[in-house]
Design brief:
Layout (H helix, E strand, L loop, with lengths): L21 H6 L4 E4 L3 E4 H17 L7 E5 L4 H12 L3 E4 L6 H11 L3 E4 L4 H7 L8 E4 L3 H6 L15 E6 L9 E5 H14 L14 E2 L13 H8 L2 E4 L5 H11 L3 E4 L1 H9 L12 E4 L6 H9 L3 E7 L6 E4 L4 H4 L3 H8 L4 E2 L4 E5 L14 E6 L11 H7 L5 E9 L5 E6 L4 E3 L2 E3 L1 H9 L4 E11 L3 E10 L7 H13 L11 E4 L13 H8 L1
Helix pairs in contact: 2-3, 7-8
Amino acid sequence: MIDTQPTPSAYEYPLLIRQLLHTPLTQTPAQEIVYASAQRFSYLEFGRRLRALAGALTAFGIGPGDTVAVMDWDSHRYLECFFAVPMMGTVLHTINIRLSPDQILYTINHAEDDLIFVHRDFMPVIDEIRPRFERPVRIVPLDDYEDLLAGADTAFEFKDFDENTRATTFYTTGTTGLPKGVFFSHRQLVLHTLGFMAALGWTAGHARFHRDDVYMPITPMFHVHGWGIPYIATLMGVKQVYPGRYEAETLLDLIKREGVTFSHCVPTILHMLLSHPKAAEVDFSGWKVIIGGAAMPPGLAQQALDLGIDVFSGYGMSETCPMLSASQLTGAMLAESPDEQIRMRCKTGRAAPLVEIRVVDLDMNDIARDGNATGEIVTRAPWLTMSYLKETDRSEELWAGGYLHTGDIATVDAEGYLQVTDRIKDVIKSGGEWISSLELEGIISQCAGVSQVAVIGIPHDKWGERPLALIVIEAGAPLDAETVLAHVRQSVDDGVISRWAIPERIEFVDAIALTSVGKIDKKRLREAFS
C-alpha cells in the first residue's frame, strides 16, 4: 500500500499571488515596466518596490484582513498594488473612479476600506464624500507615493497563508440599483492567470500572447483586475506599458514609441483610437487586440483588419474574473474568406481551459448545438466568484441550479463556438418575435457612413416593443435614414434577419451614452428615448 500522507518537511505550495513572481524575477529581471513617459524600471526594481510598499503600509498599521483601496489611472502604482497589497494578506479594493460620488461612497463604506491611495484628480470627490465615511479611513495622496516608497523598509518578507484568503474586491457598475461587490481569492486569481495564459497560447498563427510581446492595457485596472491580464504579463516577464489616463493621442504615441504588440479594450475605445487623426501616423501591423465588454461590430473588425490589427473577441463578466471564452481562429479558419474570418472573430468564441459552458433553456436543459437555438449561458470554472459581498440572496440567484447565470442569450454550434445574441434585459420583444439588438447593431455597423450604432427597444402600443437605431455618422459622410433602412432590408431579403427587425425609427445623434467601463448604456438610452 502506498503512503499518500505528505512528509513533515514537504511544501504544500499554496496558490498565492506572490508565486506569480518567481519566473519574472529570476528569468527576466532586466525587463522594463514603463509608466507613460514619466518612469521606467526593471522587474528587479519592481520586486524591491513591492517590498517597500508593503513596508510603508505596515508602518501605517495596515495588516492581514484590512482593506486598501486605490483611486488611480492605469499606472505602475496600480500594478504594484495588484501584487503587494494582497501578498500581505490584505484585501485590495479597486475603486471604480467613473461611478457617481454617492456610489463611490457606498463602495468605500461597504468594502470597509481602511486606507485609500488617491490620485490628485479624484481628491475633490474624496473631499466631498469624506464626512459621510462610516469608519476611520486613512487617505494617502499618490503625489506622495514615491517619497513613501523611498523612505520605507524594503526588508518586508511576504509569507504564506491560506490560498482561499480574499485578495481583491471591486464593484459592478451599478446600472440597476446599488453596485454589487464582487471578490476573489488568491487561489481563484492564480488559476485564472494560468487558465487565461493557456488560452492565449494554444492557437497557431494569431491571437497569441507570448514572451516577446509588449503589453499595454486599454481597459481600466479598476475593472476586473484589468481583465486579469496584468497578472499574466507579469508572470511571463514581458515589457509592460501603463498609459495613465486614456487619451487617444497618448495611447497612439505609446503604441508607436514603445512598440506595443498586445492590448485589450472595449469596442468604443478601439473605435476612438482608429478614428483619431493621429492614427494615420501609426503602423498597427503586429498589434493584437482582444475586444470585450460588448459585441465587436463587424464594421470595426473590418477597419482593424485593414490596418493589420489581429483583432478578436473575448467574453466574460465581472463575476467570472472575467475570462470564459475567446474567438480564436483555427488554421483552417484563417484560410477562409475575409468575410468569414470577420464573422468568426466577432463571435463570442470557445470556452477557455478549465471552463465549462452550457447554453440552456428555462428548465436548465441544454439547447441544440446547431448555431440557431438560443438559451442562457451558464458556466462553471475554478475562478468564478462564489457570492456577492454581504449579499447572500443575490448570490443564490446568481448560482441557481449550481451554475453561474450570466444573463446572456446565445447560440452554440457543433464545434462549441458561442455567439451571444443579446442580454436577456436588452432583447427586443416585438409582435411575438425576439429581436437581437446586437445582431441588428452588427448589420447597421457595416452600412457606409456609420461610425457608431446602438439599438434599443422602445414601447409600442400594438407590438409591445419596436427597434430604435441610434447612429453616430462618420464625419462628412452623406447618410440618411432611408439609406440605413435599405441596408437593413437587404439583410431581410438575404434571410439573415426577419422583417420584424427593421427599425421603427432611425435617430442620428452626436454621441451614444456609455457606462463607466465604456459599454453602451442601454438603460440610459431607453430612459432617454422611450
